[in-house]
Write a structure and sequence with these properties.
- This protein has 3 domains: 102 residues, Orthogonal Bundle (Arc Repressor Mutant, subunit A), CATH 1.10.10; 105 residues, no CATH class; 71 residues, no CATH class.
- The protein has a 3-stranded antiparallel sheet with strand order 1-3-2.
- It is elongated, with a radius of gyration of 27 Å.
- Helix content is 49%, strand content 4%.
- α11 packs antiparallel against α12.
- The protein has 316 residues and is mainly alpha-helical.
- About 15% of the residues have low confidence.
Length: 316
């Protein structure tokens, strides 16, 4: 992914709209953005040439605006040696696409994500759920379901190895998404679009756009064809389970692991049953590879993944 595309995905344009620049400074930023989008990261020019490029009549205003943008780290600015005859200096300028280093006139508690506009919030404030920064936890059980933000990350980063910085950014965006939308809606959109969603930040800031595309695409779904595909996936899972049962001795499966596989093989909805087995996968160490290979095949039954138990009956 190019640095300019990363700038766009990180809501750089929306942050720029909140930067409280002068009209001349905005003209310079937009011109440099246009150059960056065309692959021209830096310009070698002069103040008077820049003034002509953006339609300004004041070379002094251009100089003042460039220095102001450079002080706030919105651009990179370098001066060449003065010309020996006329004293004019050449400039090397380019936009700084790392918005985390910009010095803006915001209050201390405002971050770049305040530039993202959300359609609504379900609660008054964000609830940050603390958790270990790993994508998987083999010891997860029914009594300790994954936090909703981690379920979003597991889906988004499936079969990927994000860097620590990418993970922390995505974690923050996932927490914003679950505060704004129901977790099942977010998971549905992520599974539908897959790699077409490059970052969770882009999904959060363009939710309505993705929702419109989603609704347009699902209207084209042939229900009979979809049902047939579900049946094929169920049968494929049963075949995999039956193959494991034929190798139960070689795999040293425990009686409990064999029982789980037999339930999956004979169940009317094996991929739904796989969801429950996955919640207690820590009890079945010999089936670890099976669960890892089929995690995308299972159909979640509840948003939290907890077994719903009836309250014990109290005799009067």
């Amino acid at each position: 992914m190019s640095s300019f595309q990363s700038f766009v995905n990180d809501s750089g344009l929306k942050v720029l709209s909140m930067a409280r620049l002068t009209s001349c400074e905005y003209s310079l930023m937009l011109y440099l953005l246009n150059c960056a989008a065309s692959g021209l990261d830096e310009l070698i020019t002069t103040n008077i040439e820049v003034a002509g490029l953006i339609g300004s009549t004041s070379e002094h205003e251009i100089k003042t605006s460039l220095e102001s943008l450079n002080e706030r780290n919105l651009i990179h600015l370098r001066h060449g040696e003065p010309h020996p005859h006329n004293g004019k200096q050449s400039l090397r300028i380019g936009i700084n696409k790392d918005i985390s280093t910009w010095h803006l006139d915001f209050d201390d508690d405002v971050t770049s994500h305040d530039a993202i506009i959300f359609p609504f919030r379900r609660e008054n404030s964000l609830h940050v759920v603390e958790g270990h920064p790993e994508l998987s936890n083999d010891r997860l059980t029914i009594s300790k379901a994954a936090p909703t933000w981690k379920r979003i990350l597991n889906t988004f980063f499936h079969e990927q190895n994000p860097t620590d910085d990418e993970y922390e950014k995505a974690k923050r965006d996932a927490q914003i998404l679950i505060d704004t939308h129901h977790v099942d809606e977010v998971l549905l959109i992520l599974r539908h679009f897959g790699e077409r969603i490059p970052t969770l930040s882009l999904l959060a800031s363009s939710w309505e756009h993705y929702l419109d595309i989603f609704e347009a695409e699902i209207q084209k779904v042939d229900l009979m064809d979809a049902r047939q595909k579900h049946q094929e996936q169920d049968n494929r899972l049963r075949q995999l389970v039956d193959e494991l049962l034929t190798r139960k001795e070689d795999m040293s499966l425990t009686p409990e692991e064999i029982t789980v596989l037999k339930i999956l093989s004979s169940h009317r909805h094996p991929r739904r049953q796989l969801f429950w087995a996955y919640q207690t996968r820590g009890r079945y160490p010999n089936l670890k590879m099976f669960f890892n290979q089929n995690v995308k095949a299972m159909l979640p039954v509840t948003s939290a993944g907890n077994v719903v138990k009836k309250k014990p009956r109290q005799d009067s």
